[in-house]
Amino acid sequence: MKHSIFDVIVVGGGHAGTEAAHAAARMGVKTALLTLHRRDIGVMSCNPAIGGLGKGHLVREIDALDGVMGRVADKAGIQFRLLNRRKGPAVQGPRAQADRAIYRTEMLKLTEAQENLQIVEGEAVDFLMSDNCINGVVLSDGAEIHGRKIILTSGTFLRGVIHIGDISRPGGRMGDRPSVKLAERMDDFEVPFGRLKTGTPPRLDGRTIDWSGLDLQPGDDDPTLFSFLNNRISAPQVSCGITHTNERTHDIIQKNLSRSAMYGGHIDGVGPRYCPSIEDKVVRFSDKSSHQIFLEPEGATDHTIYPNGISTSLPEDVQEDYVHSIFGLENAVILQPGYAIEYDYVDPRSLSLDLSLRGVEGLYLAGQINGTTGYEEAAAQGMVAGLNAAASCLDKEPVNFSRSNSYIGVMIDDLTTNGVTEPYRMFTSRAEFRLSLRADNADQRLTPISISLGCCSQERKEKFLSKMDQLGSTKYALESSKYTPKQLLSAGIKVSQDGNRRTGMDVLAFPDVTFETLAPLITGLDQTKPEIRRQVERDALYATYIERQKREIDAMKRDEGHVIPVDFDFSSISGLSNELKTKLCVTKPHDLAQAARIDGMTPAGLALILARLRRDT
Ligand code: FAD
User: Fold this and answer.
1) Which residue, judged by its Cα, is nearest atom 46 of ligand 1?
2) Are the beta carbons of 282 and 343 closer than 8 angstroms?
3) Which residues belong to the annotated binding site for FAD?
4) Are 381 and 316 in contact (CB under 8 A)?
5) Nearest CA, atom 14, ligand 1
6) Protein residue closest via CA to atom 11 of ligand 1
7) What single DSSP character describes residue 271?
8) Ligand 1 center to residue 156 CA distance, Å?
9) 31-35 and 4-11 as β-strands: parallel, antiparallel, unpaired?
10) Cα separation of 515 and 492, whole Å?
């Protein structure tokens, strides 16, 4: 392996790393995926599940860009549920419980089969540099790998420390050593590091759980898959169990709070507010006498159960006590104790929109290292870094995503503009244009980008173009047919008798009107495939809102689309407060829209920047 030469080297085979490596390789550049062990590829460090609210949107977007996460999750899915099913499609989130072993096997299989991609086992301990430009990595055995662009996706491994009660030891996650040398090397670049933490619950032996009195939750009868290429599931399906903590559980936790790593003062890092430990829940919601726990199987044939809702850093004996106080878990055997991990992250405000680190040429960062939490957030960043590192090798324009075209764009903008104060996770509420950024239309928004970049498979391209053809002709038929209120009434569609003629698309937006209600009125639509019918219904439902959002987006782009040069000198703008000047100098917004979202930015401040931009450009 001495002196191997690649275009892109991805360090880390987790969720960010695999997606980054696949994206770069699909772009046609020679790519290496360097990871500590081959078996790390596709490992889920925490819960065996993919998707959920906001996160499911990200997986769909990754898939629309021909990424791998959605395809692998579909293969590994053992319980599929569409969250928020009763609410509108814009905020519904596909989620799947995944079989850990299948997920790893399938991810490895796809990775080994990907053209232009080579897996390399080893630990990166140093960077090869020439001037201020990175051009390779050094492995712990002294071997060198040369590359034009490096994408670092080391997750929770940078100076990772594992805590169980008052016992702490260095670790990247349970069973793995941390990356200390690489973190120390990065200190030389004066990278702004911070410290975060996250935790995981004890794993239980499902054979020792008394399932007889527990509620069971099966998956949906009509599973919603992640990939636009798939329409059927392959793994056996299972149900999850549901149980609850009780007052005794809370008593045990309360009495032992001082022994918890998080409450005993052993951890400085900030944890995820939206994924609190059981200690956190007992303290913060002290008025609640019970919390729900989902007992999630880690595989269709695996006895390990992931008790979702009781992550902890209490000592092992306390974990035993509180687990046994829970209904159904009285005799449960703990296979692996819960633990907390504290690790270094890089302030993402030091990154550009393409996820390259400013000030060190050729280095990109993606995943948990940028202060996020979750497989989906990591994979989506991997996609951005992979596409951009490859584009840069090929002398192509950067591939930027915007808040108006994707959740990916929302996340990148949030991270690079505002940074993080706790591990960042995606929610639908983060996207102001969420009516247009639906999980169901991710392909319509993003597959054209993948096609134009030349990194979309022929299979996806053909499937997408055929779908767009069918959608286009169906919508055309519906838009060009107009009906009087009388005609609609005679078809059983209640409508105000105001004399106005309405198009088929208008009528399809009415509550309770389905494609089937309308089809008899329009000749030639009876052959329309079910998935096209459902898609047209969803598009019709949101058409008016989207039209309004489109106008808002256009206005925003007009006013705020002014690109700010990289060397723009904010400090010399008179009238701007010192606080804003400092924030602008740190954030270095890419355009006026990004500047507008900086905490504390005022309309007057924006006007001053715009005036200077107009003067200088
Ligand atoms: P990882 O998946 O961690 O992958 C990092 C990869 O880098 C590994 O393959 C590792 O071997 C490799 N690597 C590291 N250093 C080097 C090096 N020097 N050389 C070569 N390879 C290297 N997410 C949630 O959404 N909810 C949760 O509740 C949650 N809890 C978690 C609890 C724990 C204890 C942990 C560890 C993680 C938890 N996560 C949770 C986070 C989730 O696992 C991560 O967000 C996700 O895996 C991040 O993906 P990544 O690709 O950035 O990093």
Assistant:
1) 375
2) no
3) 12-17
4) no
5) 154
6) 36
7) P
8) 5
9) parallel
10) 13
Q: Residues near ligand 1 with C-beta < 6 Å? A: 11-17, 34-36, 40, 45-46, 123-124, 153-157, 172-173, 179, 182, 198-200, 275, 341, 367-368, 373-375, 378
Q: What phi and psi, each to the nearest 5 degrees, are found at residue 583?
A: -60, -40
Alpha-carbon span 472 to 491, nearest angstrom: 25
Question: Which residue's CA is the nearest one to ligand 1's atom 23?
Answer: 374
Q: How far is CA 210 from CA 120, 237, 279, 307, in A?
A: 44, 20, 25, 14
Read off the amino acid at residue 501: R
**Helix (H), strand (E) at residue 38:** none
DSSP state letter for 206: G
User: Which SS3 state, helix, strand or coil, does residue 147 take?
Assistant: strand
Pocket test for ligand 1, best of 55, 373, 384 (most atoms within 8 A of CB): 373
With vertex at residue 152, the alpha carbon angle to CA 427 and CA 155, rounded to the nearest 5 degrees, is 50
ipTM for the predicted complex comes to 0.97
Rounded to whole angstroms, the Cα distance separating 549 from 446 reads 18
Q: How far is CA 450 from the centre of its chain?
A: 18
The token pair at 84 is: 């928020």
pLDDT in tens, 298-344: 998 899 999 999 999 999 999 999 999 999 999 999 999 999 999 99
Tokens found for residue 156: 């929770």
| Distance (Å) from CA 21 to ligand 1 centroid | 16
- Residue-wise pLDDT tens digits, 397-422: 999 999 889 999 999 999 998 899 88
Select from 15, 281, 312, 365 the residue to mutate for testing ligand 1; criterion: most ligand atoms less than 8 Å from CB. Answer: 15
Question: Phi/psi of residue 61, each to 5°?
Answer: -70, -40
Average pLDDT, the chain: 91
CB 331 within 8 A of CB 206: no
- Which residue positions form the known binding site? 12-17, 271-285
Rounded to 5°, the CA angle 297-303-304 comes to: 60
Could you tell me the distance, in angstroms and rounded to a whole number, from the CA of residue 154 to the centre of ligand 1?
Answer: 7
- Measured CA to CA in angstroms, residue 203 lies from 157, 303, 323 at distances of 21, 10, 10
Strand order from edge to edge, sheet including 193-200: 167-170, 161-164, 339-346, 193-200
Rounded distance between C-alpha atoms, residue 464 and residue 469, angstroms:
9
Give the predicted TM-score (pTM) of the model.
Answer: 0.89
Q: Whose CA is nearest to atom 10 of ligand 1?
A: 12
